[in-house]
Write a structure and sequence with these properties.
alpha/beta; 44% helix; 17 strands; 8-stranded parallel sheet
C-alpha cells in the first residue's frame, strides 16, 4: 500500500530570537546571537603565565577552527602575561579574540592590570565566585565597571558547581513557603536561571549595554542541561552559551556533549558552544574544536570541512584497505583546509565517500560529490570512482590510495576554483 504523506519537515527549528553581541579584536568581529551562525569556542589548558606555550596552543585552536579562545586569568602572573600573549599571536598572524576567565579575584586583576583588561576581547564572570556577602555586589560591580570602561562584552556564566549559596538559600526559603513545594531538582534549576538573569539585569543597571551580555547555565548532566536551557530560553533574549561542564574523557565526554547540545540546537536554542572534553595525557586540545564542528555540520547547521562517508565494515570487508584509505583521506582533507578555505570557496560542503564493497559502495559513491568503491572480500580487484554521480574511471593496482587522493585534489581545484 502506498502511504499518503504530507510534506515532511526536515531540519532544526528556527533559532530563538536573541540580541547580537559583537566580540572584537581589531578588524576581526565575531557575532554571537542575532542572525549569526552558532559560534565555536574553546579554552586553553596551559599555564597562562607561560605566554609562549599559551600563544602556541591558542594558535593551534584557532587554526583548528575555534572562533573564540578562552584563557584562565587567575593570578597576577597570568594577568601580566595576557598582553604578551596577544602580541605573540599578532606576530603569528592570529587574530582570534581572547576571552578572559575570571573567578574570585577578577575585580582586582582587571583593575591592577589595565593592559590585560584591554588586550582581552571579552570577560567571563561567574556570579557564584565573585565574593561572599556584601563583597559580592561590590566586586561584581567593579568587574562590570571595567567592562563598561573598556567596552568589553561579558559572559555571565553560572555553574552548578559554584552556585551563589546566598541566592540558593533564598530560593529554598521561598520554596518552603509554597503550599506545594517544588522538588529539590527544580529549585536548583530555578537558582541557576535566577542567578544568570538577575546578574545580567544588575549588569545593565550598572551601565553595561544589554547587547554586550551573554548567559550560560552549565551543569554536567545531559537531562539537567536540556531542562535548564529550555527554561532560561523562555525568560530572556540574551544570547546563550551552551556547554556540558565536566563532560568527561574520551567517548563518554563526546557522547554526553553531543546528546545534550544536539537536542537544544535542534530546538533552536544556543548561540555559541564549547565542548568541554578532558584530554587524555598528552592528548590534542583541538579535539574539542573538531567535535564541535562535527556536531554543527552533521546537524546541517554549519559547514567546516569536507565530510568523509565510510562504511563500518563487515565480513565482506576483511581487508583493512578501505579503513586506511578513509583515514588517509580524512587526514588529508583536514590538513588542506587552512589553505583550501581561502582558495576554494564552498569546498567545506563537499562529500567524499570511501566504501568497502559492492553492496552499498557504488550507490553511496554516486550520492557523494566524489566517491570510490573498493573491492570487498572475493570481489574483482578493481575500484570504480564516481564523480558527481557518474562513474568516471576504475582504479587498479597498489597505488589506489595515492591515485584517489590526486583525483580528489584535481576535483577540488576544478570544481571550487573561483570564477576569474
Amino acid at each position: 500500500m502506498l502511504v499518503d504523506l504530507k510534506e515532511i519537515a526536515c531540519g532544526a527549528a528556527l533559532r530563538r530570537q536573541s540580541r547580537a553581541v559583537q566580540i572584537r579584536y581589531r578588524d576581526k568581529v565575531v557575532v554571537v546571537g542575532g542572525d549569526a551562525p552558532v559560534v565555536i569556542q574553546s579554552m586553553t589548558n596551559t599555564d597562562t603565565a607561560d605566554a609562549i606555550a599559551t600563544a602556541i596552543q591558542i594558535k593551534e585552536l584557532a587554526r583548528a577552527g575555534s572562533e573564540l579562545v578562552r584563557i584562565t586569568v587567575n593570578n597576577p602572573e597570568a594577568a601580566q602575561a595576557v598582553p604578551a600573549i596577544r602580541e605573540q599571536l599578532d606576530r603569528m598572524g592570529i587574530d582570534v579574540p581572547l576571552v578572559g576567565d575570571f573567578h574570585y579575584n577578577g575585580h582586582t586583576l582587571l583593575k591592577d592590570f589595565p593592559d590585560c583588561a584591554k588586550a582581552l576581547s571579552k570577560y567571563r564572570i561567574n556570579p557564584g565566585n565573585v565574593g561572599q556577602g556584601a563583597k559580592r555586589d561590590t566586586q561584581f560591580a567593579q568587574m562590570i565597571e571595567m567592562a563598561c570602561l573598556y567596552q568589553k562584552p561579558v559572559r555571565i556564566g553560572v555553574n552548578w558547581g559554584s552556585l551563589d549559596q546566598a541566592l540558593l538559600a533564598r530560593i529554598m526559603d521561598e520554596n518552603s513557603q509554597r503550599a506545594v513545594p517544588l522538588s529539590a531538582q527544580t529549585v536548583m534549576y530555578q537558582a541557576l536561571i535566577t542567578s544568570a538573569i538577575e546578574s545580567a539585569q544588575r549588569a545593565e543597571q550598572l551601565g553595561l549595554p544589554g547587547d554586550q551580555i551573554i548567559l550560560s547555565c552549565k551543569v554536567s548532566g545531559v537531562q539537567d542541561l536540556i531542562s535548564v536551557y529550555r527554561e532560561i530560553s523562555k525568560h530572556c533574549d540574551y544570547p546563550l552559551h551552551l556547554g556540558l561542564t565536566e563532560a568527561g574523557m574520551g567517548s563518554k565526554g563526546i557522547v554526553a556533549s553531543t546528546a545534550a547540545l544536539s537536542v537544544l540546537l535542534q530546538e533552536g536554542i544556543g548561540d555559541t558552544i564549547r565542548i568541554s572534553l578532558t584530554p587524555e595525557p598528552g592528548g590534542d586540545r583541538c579535539k574539542e574544536v573538531f567535535v564541535a564542528q562535527e556536531i554543527l555540520q552533521t546537524m546541517g547547521l554549519r559547514k567546516f570541512m569536507p565530510m568523509v562517508i565510510a562504511c563500518p565494515g563487515c565480513g565482506r570487508t576483511t581487508s583493512t584497505v578501505f579503513q586506511e584509505l578513509a583515514d588517509d583521506i580524512q587526514s588529508f582533507l583536514r590538513e588542506q583546509m587552512p589553505v583550501w578555505k581561502t582558495q576554494y570557496p564552498g569546498v567545506e560542503g563537499m562529500n567524499v565517500a570511501v566504501m568497502g564493497c559492492i553492496v552499498n559502495g557504488p550507490g553511496e559513491s554516486k550520492h557523494a560529490h566524489i566517491g570510490i568503491s573498493l573491492p570487498g572480500t572475493g570481489e574483482s580487484p578493481a575500484a570504480p570512482v564516481f564523480i558527481d554521480g557518474v562513474k568516471a574511471m576504475t582504479l587498479r593496482g597498489e597505488n589506489i590510495a595515492q591515485d584517489f587522493q590526486k583525483i580528489v585534489l584535481d576535483y577540488v581545484q576544478t570544481r571550487y576554483s573561483p570564477q576569474v
